[in-house]
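User: For my dataset I need records formatted as: sequence, then structure tokens, nothing else. Please produce one.
Assistant:
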Amino acid sequence: MHGCLYCYATYIPRFYSVRLKKRLLTRLEKDLRRLDLKKPISMSNSSDPYPPIEKKHEITRKCIELMRDYSVKLLVVTKSDIVARDADILSEMKCCVSVTVTGFKFARILEPNAPPPEKRIEAMRELKNAGIPVVLRLDPILPFINEDEVEEVLEKCNFVDHVVTSTLKLRGDSFRRVVSAIPWLEERYRNLYFKFGKKVQNSWYLAKNLRLKILRKVEEKCNEMGISCAFCREGFKFNAKSCDGQHLLS
């Protein structure tokens, strides 16, 4: 996949391996026949539907074609610019596309296998020009890393329909990966998360007042730009109609 150091989903067995699933389209169609298709389908929240090998195999594209034929309401969540390739199909569906852009300076370190942020922004613009609602995932915001890039990211994505944001949630393995790549963060993150933060299930959160300060900065900029903004997995109220942009499917 994209090998993001901060990823929270790496506890899933074989998470980093990408394999072609047997009879995928047959199994997908079987599921589509029995599902309540009045509800939207999100593709996908813990992994990415557009890994680099999708350029060659076009498996995701075939799945989207099938979902279009079944009139699926689709929310695509990705960190790849490949999604713009499928604008021809997505524009024929009730669909919105959510693309993650965290920042610029540390992108190569934190997201080693993902396309450059500039390419993702250009893909979002192509989708928007094709009439497809677009969501910016400014997620996660990492203290000392991309806090000062929030306004720059938002200004470069000023054409989006919605923004969803959240602060970094640390697990043991993601902490080790991040501080191994950026050693000067280790003591700072130990204090912010393990000393002054809060553990929620298997993840460590920043202190509530610090999280709220960071998130309000994004919200204020979005309000200034006239773009709706929501928080993901934070426990704070927001004014948008949905967290992930599902309201754009109607």
